[in-house]
Each structure stands twice: as structure tokens, then as C-alpha cells.
Amino acid sequence: MDYDVIVIGGGPAGLSAALTGACYKLKTLVIEAAAAGGALVNNFPWKVVDNTLGFRNMTGKQVAAIYVEHIKNEDVDIKENEGVENITRDDVADEILVETNKNKYTAKAVIIAIGVLGKPRKANVQGENLNGVNYTLTYPNLYANRKILVAGGGDTAVEWAVGLDKAGAETTIIHRKDVFRANEKNQKDIAESKVKILWNTETKEILGENGKVKGAILINNQTNKTITENFDEIFLGLGNVPHSDFLEKIKVKTDERRMKILVDETMKTNIKGIFAAGDITQKWLKIPEAIGEGGFAGICAYKYIKNPYWA
Ligand SMILES: Cc1cc2nc3c(=O)[nH]c(=O)nc-3n(C[C@H](O)[C@H](O)[C@H](O)COP(=O)(O)OP(=O)(O)OC[C@H]3O[C@@H](n4cnc5c(N)ncnc54)[C@H](O)[C@@H]3O)c2cc1C
């Protein structure tokens, strides 16, 4: 057996689970498909995290760097840029095989902490493959004085639009409904910004020139009226497609939308030796709760490893 516990996903939940593993002297591996730190560094590195005790006026990137620095000083192996593609439980050997795009590892227990961001949802419109169509916003300042279209109505799209506006970009946001799904703070921020809001509006086609975005045809889904406007860049914040391929293969129980893994009060899934923590579980979470849940999953995995009858 290569490891006592393998943690899949290096976000706040996964790193916290790994820290707990290290504290209990479990041989622990974290496998992270992108950069360790999770959504904080991969999805909102520029945003100030305002709700995590002990981290005041720090960006996602700074908070993630502190988490990763902490873990790297513990007895934990970390593999970055390595995505898990399959997990299988071997009942005879009583171990779990974890296959990535690069390697195979075995462990007694696995904690799935892959978050919910998955792959970005596509708009499925003509022109979507052009250069200048983006699914993530790293540094709004790169877009100062540019003309930007943001599509979407949740927290992510609204935060992008507000961030771009603050950075000095001429920003328009379109949303297919007439009210944002974003939280109160984000709704207030966008209402107070200079962002132009087009309700009941969707992207009909993305226009380009020499392989690069030039503009978009937008359609009002109530009146069917279209407008054509020039944009330098387009940000599609239409939500995410869950990791259903990966979860389906291991037949782990999820909710009906296949977005969330169902765990019991000890973070166990329906498969022996497999636990889950963080945003991927059925609870709605934020950074502090993901850390708490990850740590708890680490404790539960420890109890399971040391005393399988506990399972
Ligand atoms: C734009 C934005 C702003 C936010 N702002 C805040 C905020 O201000 N305060 C707050 O509390 N929360 C905020 N959140 C929510 C917060 O990011 C999450 O609650 C938190 O990151 C959840 O931690 P997690 O470890 O469960 O998942 P994540 O942080 O999503 O980490 C999961 C990790 O798993 C990796 N992964 C996925 N699939 C695989 C695979 N197959 N193999 C290996 N690795 C894999 C991913 O690459 C990712 O790094 C924000 C989220 C977004 C998107």
C-alpha cells in the first residue's frame, strides 16, 4: 500500500484533511489537478477574502499561499497538475486504487475534496472558440480601458463584472433572467458600480476577426430583439459542469443533479473507505466551513484506518 490516505483536491478542504492526516502520523498524499490552494488561487486569486478569521485584507492568492506553505512544511506529499480520473475499491486487498492522468497509487482511505467548480459550462454558440472568450478572470487590471462583456447572473459573474469595472474596464453584463442570483453584497456592489446591466439577455453569436473576438450578437429572450455590439473580451460565467464522469465511475452516491456527494455525519460516502469534504458534499460551504469539514474528514479517515470496525 502506497499511502494511508489519499486526498483528492488541494483546496481548503483537501489541505485541511491532509494536515489532520499528518498530525495523526498518517502517510498522506494530496493529488491536485491544478495548483494547490484550490479555488482561491485557481479561480479568484485577485479577490479579497473577507470572511475568514485571521486573514484580513488578503487576496485569494495570498491566503492560498499561506495554506500551501503550511502543508509543505508538514509530512505530506503533494502532486500538482495531476488529475484523478478513476478510483476503484479492491475489497479483497481492502485498498483503494487511485488512477491519475500520470500515475497509479493505492491507499487504505480516500478523501474526495474536489470542490464544485468542475469544468466551465459552455454557451454553445458560434464563435465560442475564438481567442478572447474566457471562462475565468485572473487579474481584472489586465483589462483596464478595454470593452468587456460578462455573461451570467451568479456570484462569479457579478464579481467579475464589478472587479473589471473597478479596474477601469467598460463593462456590460448580460443575464438571461431579470434578477441576479448573487448574494446581497455582490448585488449592492454591482448596483453601485458603472456596469451596464442587460436583463433577459443571452449571447446569440460571438463575432470575430482573425481568430480574435470582435463583438457579439445579443438577444433579448422576451422580445427576441437582437443587438450587435463590439467587445474586446468576453467572460462567460455560466456556472460549471459537475465532475459527473469521475463520480459516476466509482458509483459514489450523489444528489439528483449529480453536483454533490452525499456523506453521513462522519463524512463517509456509500463506499467503504471513501470520504468526502468541502464544497463537493451536500452542504453549502465557504472557505471556513470547508476547512472545518476537511479537518473532520481527516479525523474520520484516521479512525477508520486505525479501526475498520468503526466504519
Ligand atoms: C469567484 C469565487 C469567489 C469566492 N469568494 C469566497 C470568499 O470570499 N469567501 C469564502 O469563504 N468563500 C469564497 N468562495 C467559495 C470558496 O472558494 C469555496 O467554498 C472553497 O474554495 C471550497 O473549498 P474546497 O476545498 O471544497 O474546494 P476548492 O477550493 O474548489 O478545491 C478543489 C480542488 O480540487 C481540484 N480537483 C478537482 N477535480 C480534481 C481531480 N479530478 N483530481 C485532482 N484534483 C481535482 C481542483 O483543481 C481544486 O483545486 C468563492 C468561490 C468563487 C468561485
TrEMBL record:
Task: Please provide, alphabetically and separated by semicolons, the GO molecular function terms listed in this UniProt record.
Answer: oxidoreductase activity
UniProt entry tagged with the keyword Flavoprotein: yes
What InterPro entries has UniProt attached to this entry?
FAD/NAD-bd_sf, FAD/NAD-binding_dom, Ferredoxin-NADP_redctase_2
Entry keywords, A to Z: Flavoprotein, Oxidoreductase
Gene3D superfamilies per the record? FAD/NAD(P)-binding domain
Coiled-coil intervals in this record? none
Tell me which residues make up the FAD/NAD(P)-binding domain: 3-294
Q: Which domain of life is it from?
A: Archaea
List the protein's name. Answer: NAD(P)/FAD-dependent oxidoreductase
Source organism: Candidatus Altarchaeum hamiconexum
